[in-house]
């Protein structure tokens, strides 16, 4: 079973996108090889749901972070080696002899083969030397065994036509499967070294995955991974307190906190480092968010109706019995205050009954919070706004309770909008 995160959620949290400069994928993409890029993309697209597999991958990243290794392969040489090992066409001794002996035949193919062979020999030598630094890494034993079987790697003998034919046949035919495994090993090392470097540079940590039951999420310091000076907050959820009802003024940091939570949970299911300290979590079946729900002009959907359909979709998933994490930012902001109050109250109360799921629900309609106090499994939190004269200052530090801040009109007045129109 694969971890569930639909297109809306991936876009809300800005998780994917090699060419999106602010995406979480791009934050980790310090990859040197094409195969490493492809492996990183697969990891992002396929988070894990097996507790042991998640913790094993985290342990691998942690190992490489402690080693602080530098990726030893030259990008150009490695691409030449990869292209050579994946070349098609005849490469047997008779075929090469025929090419060389035929004076009318263009020799470019042979020169390309020779360049690729030399690059491959260089890569294999580098790999064997690099493995000396991985003496305590379990997977390295099989790689060393393969490389030890190629005794001529250290030979500086001249690459005659016959030697080229013999080496070529050995690498691209006899040991083809082993070479594919070694290439894949380099791709893995590329990802492990790159991701662990990011973790070390940005002060990320590794979460501990727990079985799906009982439901637990706990961290002492959660922040957004893309913010260099992000404020960290503690967040705790469990089956007896599985809903965070979040309030706060505009710009107080509600959306950033919710995104931080969703991103940390997603990365943790990948076994990746997270921008959260002392984090442990019960493995979930998936993650759904409703943060930036667009209207749909082609379907004739207003913004409010698009919100309703999103909530309906999530409700169907929750009611099916899956262990999910749900993030709702400003429920029903596309309708009038009375309907938004009634709908937010009813939907939050209904979702709260599903103790196997976690919810973070934010709203500007703070009156809903008082009506929800009867539900023991809700925790109320807010992000405060401090006034310095008539200027608001945001601490981004989570507090217990429901906000009483109402500073929207003050911000409008500070910007001089009414005065501008009156003039």
UniProtKB/TrEMBL annotation:
Give every DNA mismatch repair proteins mutS family domain span. Answer: 241-422
Gene3D superfamilies cross-referenced by the UniProt entry? 1.10.1420.10, P-loop containing nucleotide triphosphate hydrolases
The cross-references to Pfam families, in alphabetical order and at most eight, read:
MutS_V
**Signal sequence extent:** none
| InterPro entries recorded | DNA_mismatch_repair_MutS_C (IPR000432), DNA_mismatch_repair_MutS_sf (IPR036187), MutS (IPR045076), P-loop_NTPase (IPR027417)
Q: State the UniProt keywords alphabetically.
A: ATP-binding, DNA-binding, Nucleotide-binding
Q: What is this protein called?
A: DNA mismatch repair protein
**Organism, as annotated:** Chitinophaga filiformis (Myxococcus filiformis)
